[in-house]
Amino acid sequence: MSLFETSEDPVQELHQNVARPFERATAMPKSVYTSELFLDKEIRNIFAREWFCVGRTDGLPNPGDYLALELAGQPIMVVRDHKGKLRAQANVCRHRMSVLLEGRGNRRTIVCPYHGWTYGLDGRLRGAPAMTHNKGFDRSLYRLPQIRCEEWLGWILVSLNSEIERATQRFSAIETMVEDYDMVSYKQAFFETWEWNTNWKVLAENFMESYHLPVCHAATIGGLSKVDDVTCPAGHERFNYHTLQKEESFTLSIAHSNNRRMQGERRLTTYLLSIYPSLMITLTPGYFWYLSLYPLATGRVRIYYGGGFSRDFAEDSDSEHHVAELRQLLDEVNAEDRKCTERVYSGLSSDFATPGHLSHLERPNFEFARYLSRRIDQPE
Ligand code: FES
Ligand SMILES: [Fe+2]
Question: Do 137 and 175 fall within a single domain?
Answer without folding.
Answer: no
